[in-house]
Amino acid sequence: MINRSKISFTIILTTSFIIGLGILDAQSKRKPKWVTDRPVDNNYYIGIGKASKTESDADYLEIAKNKALADIISEISVNISSNSILNQIEDNTGLQETYQARIELSTMDYIEGYEIVDSWDNKEEYWVYYRLSKAEYKRRKQEILDRAINLSKDFYEKAKEAEQEYDINNALIYYVKSFDAVKKHIGEDLSVFTMEGRIYLDNAIYQSIQDIFSRIKIVPEKEIYTLQALSSENEPVVVKVKLKTDLETQSISNLPITFSFPDSNIGESEKVLSLNNGKAECSIASMAPKGKAQIIKAELNTEVYFGEDSPDNFLKKLFNERGIKPYGYINVVVNEIIAYLESQELFLGNYSFNHPITRLLEQELSKNFFSFTKDIERSDVIVRIESEVTPGDKLEKHNLHTSFLNCNIRIIKTASEFEIYNETLQNIKGMKSGSFEIAAKDAIEKAEKEIKNKIIPNIRKINLY
């Protein structure tokens, strides 16, 4: 016979156990105190991160961790040393503010050694609690800073040695390396003892480069150069690169110099190195517009040392904003070439009396190389232009028309009838709705760009004499 009392007791005991498990599970899901009340610990930086389990398919564990680490970083105050270069420069361009923000971001480099304290989650949220020992953070930060300062000091002393030997190229290279070694720490006190005594590395590097720049002189050998356009027989156009010292000026070799045309629309530039005698030769001078005095700028190519523009290139931005760069000017006069023009243009099957391509070419050639004459006997060269615009297809559905332009340009020496230039623009396509004439105008506009961007630069390379 079944003992009903015993069965009832078993059911009660089982039910109590299940209820007990439910209570324990509910207690385990209850939010811990650190979720609602932020912990405070004088020995640790605290980071709390939260991520939704439902809003994103991304890894909520990683999201919460990253938020917690960002929270730790936000607790770490960043103080700019009164001796930092950031506090030594007058700044109207936001340079200080920009780099102070970047210094704050670099704090991430020092927060290794953080540890997880706890985590909590429910169906919707995941929370995590990290901490970082303040003592460990301080130790690691100082360790990284000491390594950077020692490396910077080594490069700085090499730069000083090179400067004393008038090896200015290597001096600048070492100064930049010295700055790069500590650029993540320019908000810190970068004081160090050298043969000069106590210096602040960031300021000393900047001042040393500035001093070199102020003493570099780039001067032309002649007050004015007279050249012939499109000639290989022109005298060399030369600047001397010198360093002013207390007693004399010293010729400087191996410095990168850039020549350019600051006052004209010529996009050409040239990069050279100064020779052992300090001279640097400009081979693009004859490209200057003809007929009147033109300026060629010769300047130190600081990109060789500072590199290209980038958000963390503080040194380049500093010198660019302050306009400190050694340069000099060369005065040149390029004598004009007398040209006689012959042209024939066909426009959609008829002779063109407007000569649109001829007018475009004559304008550009006059601006850059030639003076045109109507007397062939006076000319140095003959410019022959043949162009034709032909109709293409018509798409009835959209009333879309196409036209094609072909053009040949030849330059011939008048005296010898020797051809020195021959180039063709082929099948330049114009496409417009309305008519073949409108499409032809589109082709002519495209040809104008080709003349400026291709024909004129190629003519510059001709050696006429």
Provide the descriptors you would attach to this structure in a database record.
465 residues; alpha+beta; Endonuclease I-creI; Immunoglobulin-like; 4 domains; six-stranded mixed sheet; five-stranded mixed sheet; 11 helices; 36% helix
Helix proportion range? 25-40%
Mean pLDDT: 86
**Alpha carbon gyration radius:** 37 Å
Largest sheet: 6 strands, mixed
Number of strands: 20
CATH topology of the largest domain: Double Stranded RNA Binding Domain
Strand content: 25-35%
CATH superfamily of the largest domain: Putative neuraminyllactose-binding hemagglutinin homolog like domain
Give a brief description:
The protein is α+β, with helices and mostly antiparallel strands and 465 residues long. It has helices at residues 4-29, 33-36, 60-75, 95-105, 134-164, 168-182, 201-215, 303-306, 314-322, 356-368, 436-460, and strands at residues 44-52, 115-121, 125-133, 191-194, 197-200, 216-220, 225-228, 237-244, 249-251, 256-260, 269-273, 279-282, 293-300, 327-335, 337-347, 350-351, 370-373, 381-395, 400-413, 419-433. The protein folds into four domains: 34-134, Acetamidase/Formamidase-like domains (Endonuclease I-creI), CATH 3.10.28; 137-214, no CATH class; 215-304 and 319-335, Immunoglobulin-like; 337-460, 2-Layer Sandwich (Double Stranded RNA Binding Domain), CATH 3.30.160.
